[in-house]
């Protein structure tokens, strides 16, 4: 099986989630990804949120599979020399340190171009370069706040809310990945590397594109008819939190099911397409709404959407989420159960499809990870365990021409 990035060398100077998510996928696609880590400590996620004392945490293992690990103190002269040699032979360099950190170390974009003009330099920061916030150290939640996700998520009367999905972290890594693949293709045409600067704010913003759509609609019309407060409460001058509204031109809402009091996830989401209205009316026991002028057309229904949602919920409330889906799917009414993390982790079809993947780790044993989301017809990434800290020190330095004695001396000096 030939993998698309075989022969591509990546120097992975990333940590936590945003950068590692990107480089992990490069490794799944066949690149040789070498993770550079602080000697003796490594990526902070190795020791964060541990479930087994003394072993690499799942936070690390699930974001660093298929990589090699080299301990290297890049602030020492020897460490700088080794990193420079690695960069000379590499195709891609990725980092997500705090703003200015790499420049201080001597590996900013200007220095990188001088080291290897064919090198593609991927960098993740919280904010775009000329942003008034560009000096901020940034984590997931800060990016969700800055990118427009937090202000538009939650209950109308509640505070801005975080999404559980890693919109700031892994999402930024995926955006950078797209940029790096484009830069690789560009290098094929021009022979030159380039810098790909990916800000977390931009990555979140790209996913709240529809809210920027809504801001412009609001400024023109003063209202947003698909939002839950329409037509009962006035709109302000900014897009409000959408609660459980579908956010598209087709309305939808979260319905309680029979066990909602004891099971916080016995809910189903139902979408009300313009077509198929007869099926909806018949199933919820409102056949008169098929011709009622207040309900017969999508536009007529807008002011009465909560009557529709309430009637649907009066029907779902004596069935569990799976029973509801079984009935509605036959009527081609779009719907889906709220699945818990437990249901997802143990779902046989997700395992069969390679979406939840078992990994055998030499130190901590079997664990499960989330597999490669795109499924290809010509290859399937094989997901292997993450490296132990410094597992490939000797291997990598030998490749660079260092002798066993050199390696021992570097260890002695704390360079590796
Ligand atoms: C995530 C973040 C907030 C963490 O900040 P932090 O804990 O201060 O960590 P830093 O990235 O600054 O690294 C800390 C120091 O360790 C140093 N360091 C890390 N690995 C090293 C190594 N192998 N050798 C020598 N020094 C190393 C860094 O150079 C830095 O030193 P400096 O402060 O003198 O520049 C920050 O890295 C950041 O804003 N990154 C960009 C946005 C991002 O990716 N955030 C999402 C993370 S999921």
From TrEMBL:
GO biological process, one term: oxalate catabolic process
Keyword terms of this UniProt record: Transferase
Gene Ontology molecular functions: formyl-CoA transferase activity
Domain of life where this protein originates: Bacteria
Pathway, per record: Metabolic intermediate degradation; oxalate degradation; CO(2) and formate from oxalate: step 1/2
The protein's Enzyme Commission number: 2.8.3.16
Residues the record marks as active site: 169
Binding site for CoA: 72-75, 96-98, 104, 137-140
Class in the EC hierarchy, top level: transferase
InterPro entries in UniProt: CoA-transferase_III_domain, CoA-Trfase_fam_III, CoA-Trfase_III_dom3_sf, CoA-Trfase_III_dom_1_sf, Formyl_CoA_transfer
Catalysed conversion reaction: formyl-CoA + oxalate = oxalyl-CoA + formate
NCBIfam families cross-referenced by the UniProt entry: oxalate_frc, PRK05398.1
Subunit composition and interactions: Homodimer.
Role summary: Involved in the catabolism of oxalate and in the adapatation to low pH via the induction of the oxalate-dependent acid tolerance response (ATR). Catalyzes the transfer of the CoA moiety from formyl-CoA to oxalate.
Protein family according to the UniProt entry: Belongs to the CoA-transferase III family. Frc subfamily.
Name used for this protein in its record: Formyl-CoA:oxalate CoA-transferase
Native species: Acetobacter peroxydans
Gene designation per UniProt: frc
């Amino acid at each position: 099986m030939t993998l698309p990035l075989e022969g591509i060398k990546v120097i992975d100077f990333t940590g936590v989630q945003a950068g590692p998510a990107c480089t992990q996928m490069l490794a799944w696609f066949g690149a040789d990804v070498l993770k550079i880590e602080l000697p003796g400590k490594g990526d902070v996620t190795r020791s964060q949120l541990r479930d087994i004392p003394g072993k690499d945490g799942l936070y690390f293992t699930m974001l660093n599979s298929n990589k090699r690990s080299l301990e290297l103190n890049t602030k020492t002269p020897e460490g700088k020399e080794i990193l420079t040699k690695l960069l000379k032979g590499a195709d891609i360099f990725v980092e997500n340190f705090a703003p200015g950190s790499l420049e201080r170390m001597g590996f900013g974009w200007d220095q990188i171009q001088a080291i290897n003009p064919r090198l593609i330099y991927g960098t993740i920061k919280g904010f775009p370069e000329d942003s008034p916030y560009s000096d901020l150290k940034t984590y997931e939640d800060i990016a969700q706040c800055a990118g427009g996700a937090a202000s538009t998520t939650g209950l109308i009367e509640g505070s801005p809310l975080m999404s559980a999905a890693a919109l700031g972290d892994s999402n930024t890594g995926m955006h950078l990945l797209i940029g790096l693949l484009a830069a690789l293709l560009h290098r094929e045409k021009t022979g030159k590397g380039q810098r790909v600067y990916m800000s977390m704010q931009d990555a979140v913003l790209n996913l709240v594109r529809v809210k920027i759509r809504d801001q412009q609609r609001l400024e023109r019309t003063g209202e947003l008819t698909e939002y839950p407060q329409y037509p009962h409460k006035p709109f302000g001058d900014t897009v409000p939190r959408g609660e459980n509204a579908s956010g598209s031109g087709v309305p939808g809402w979260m319905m309680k099911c029979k066990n909602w009091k004891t099971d916080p996830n016995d809910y189903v989401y139902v979408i009300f397409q313009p077509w198929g209205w007869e099926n909806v009316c018949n199933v919820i026991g409102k056949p008169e709404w098929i011709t009622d002028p207040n309900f017969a057309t999508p536009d007529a229904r807008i002011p009465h959407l909560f009557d529709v949602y309430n009637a649907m919920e009066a029907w779902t409330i004596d069935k569990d989420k799976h029973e509801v889906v079984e009935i509605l799917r036959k009527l081609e009414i779009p719907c889906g159960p709220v699945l818990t993390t437990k249901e997802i982790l143990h779902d046989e079809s997700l395992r069969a499809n390679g979406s939840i993947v078992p990994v055998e780790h030499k130190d901590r044993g079997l664990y499960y990870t989330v597999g490669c989301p795109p499924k290809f017809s010509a290859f399937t990434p094989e997901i292997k365990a993450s490296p132990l800290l410094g597992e490939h020190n000797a291997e990598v330095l030998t490749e660079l021409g260092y002798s066993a004695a050199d390696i021992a001396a570097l260890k002695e000096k704390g360079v590796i």
